[in-house]
Amino acid sequence: MGSRTEVALLFGVHGHQPVGNFPWIFEEAFEKAYRPFMEVVRDFPSFSFTLHYTGPLWEWIERERSWFMEWVGEMVDRGQVEIQVSGFYEPVLAAIPVRDRLGQIEMAREYVKSRWGVVPRGLWLTERVWEPQILPQLLEAGIEHVVVDDYHFLCAGREEGELGGYFLTEDEGETLAVFPISERLRYLIPFRPVDRVMDYLRDHPGPGAIIHDDAEKFGIWPGTHDWVYRKGWLRRFLEAVEGEPRVKTLTFSRFMEEFPPQGRVYLPTASYFEMGEWSLPPELAREFHRLVEDLKAKGEWELYRPFFRGGIWRNFLVKYPEANHMHKRMVWVSKRVSGVDLEAKKALYRAQCNDAYWHGIFGGLYLPHLRRTVYSHLLEAEAQAGVGLEGAWVEDLDADGHEELILSNKEYLVVIKPSQGGSLVELSSRVEGVNITDTLARRFEHYHREEEIHRRGGDGAPSIHEYAKAPPREGLVYDPLPRYSFVDYLVPEGFSMGDWEEGRWEGVRLLGFQGYHLSLGGGGWTLLWEEGDTRLEKTYRLLPRGLEVSYAFSLPQEVALAVGIDLHLPWADNAWVEVAGRRVAATGRKCWGKIGGWVCRDPSLSSPFVVTLGKEEEVWQVPFFTLSQSEQGLDEIYQGTGFLVVVEGGGGVTFSLGLKREEMSDA
């Protein structure tokens, strides 16, 4: 670029909608953010920038707004736009098997090459999750540069003033360029007035000022559509850049052609700074947040910032056992479908989309439709691969040091956890492509105790990290265990539906904390727990029509056995529970009294789901909701409907669960 007083602005946008997101969200995001952004930048052909859209978004655009692909092509042809890739369906690369990392990247590169005739050189690293072990696959896939956060570099001992360009990292002497995204620019663009952004760029020590961030902040985040377009922030910004001789725009690859690397760097495992807070256990996350705010108030934050690390992305697989189960099921399916045709791999790749596996400021794991999509595509991958579906496996599926029992036939897949009370973790229907027991526990999150979550910004538009959010209501109920099914409780006399609903466990023995002994007999897989004169065993049998669970027990006279069954009915208020012609919404509460079973009807299921009991027992129904943060505030989300079957007296009880077939009678 010549003059040392010039600064290159490397401007990148990343657009993403997760696999399985609602069609109207794609539509709204396109009309409020993606389309208007491109409409404005098309008027400034000298403004060079880097574009990354994920595979799910490209597929929707190509199907629903194909003319937009031509817009992109025009800007690529005139050299205004460089297209970056990621794993096609936006997985966290470090969290998927090596073979799938390579497959997803190659799929994305081939997609871009076939549409616009260019070979992508750069990669957007999903959620900026960097782990050194992904480097060999990036190099093997032909990637020349990646973008991460400046926070990664600060953790490696680099000074902020050094981060005006790219560095080289290496594996066995093979090098990859790594660009640091400026956190300061992330918070300035587009939330602060244009003159403040330009002042920062003019004073930047150079040679490069780097911003690569969510395209959704240009129209979808609260208040941004009005600020960016109606009030003209984006157009004024592009006019200011065009009129400022000291600021030139370059794509990442063009910058590499004009400037040498800043040096060599070895980055630690890290993501962007906020991820470090979100991935910590809730009490530690709250303390971490408080410490950061205290240092900012004292004006000492910049001094200590490099030493604040928080957690790492993989912590979510410890923090949320439901996420870990999905993840390990994905790994299990990946092993089963490796080496098969592309369509089966595509289904697996779709199940690897990152959003459902974690939770930060966006709903993620808390959104049932995203979890449902993961399970649906895992089941689809197995079906398309033609792998053997009939079988039983005893192995440590979830990598916790304890073996699980996996039962499968052409109709269902079942996962049972002996180490946690012999509970049922998953009951998936292969016909429906749904895990009917896909529930999420109500657990404490650190933002549940904030008086006001984040501060609002001053001038300009606040980012979602600054929006004030109302504190949650009092009296939140948290579950002591994951919401698995066939969790056993020994309950004392007088234990009520209200006690169960409100989490009053005084005098209750929660056997979900106990390990059960697993054995195979002629009648099925039996799980046994005994202590003194108390003995409880349950036997699982997977049948073509569904799952049968038989209990036999011997208990002290003063206690009763209660068995929890938690089901997820995706349409919530439009789904209902039926007993002998009486109906209650799935989101309603009901003491059914002594009944012989119930039927769950959900419009998203082609057949009703039926639970039958061997004899009439007391049954209680209570829905449960989680409270989670999102870009809009705090959301109360239906996660499932709990049924507690209270069995009094000795002997036993038998449950049958499955989609309704002719041989099964109605409840």
Provide an overview of this structure.
The chain has 667 residues and is of the alpha+beta class. It has 19 helices and 27 strands. Strands 15, 16, 17, 18, 19, 20, 21, 22, 23, 24, 25, 26 and 27 form a 13-stranded antiparallel beta sheet that branches. Strands 1, 2, 3, 8 and 9 form a 5-stranded parallel beta sheet that branches. The chain has a 5-stranded antiparallel beta sheet with strand order 10-11-12-13-14, with helices on one face. Helix 8 (194-203) runs parallel beside helix 10. It starts with 6 loop residues before the first strand and ends in an 8-residue tail after the last strand. Residues 452-457 and 662-667 have low confidence and may be disordered.
Number of helices: 19
CATH third-level topology of the largest domain: 7-stranded beta/alpha barrel
Please give the number of β-strands: 27
Q: How much of the residues is beta strand, in percent?
A: 25-35%
Share in helix: 25-40%
Average pLDDT number = 91
SS-derived structural category = alpha+beta
- Largest β sheet strand count, sense and barrel closure: 13 strands, antiparallel
Residue runs with pLDDT of under 50 for 5 or more positions? 452-457, 662-667
**CATH class annotation of the largest domain:** Alpha Beta
- What would you report as the Rg, rounded to the nearest angstrom? 27 Å
Principal-axis shape equals elongated
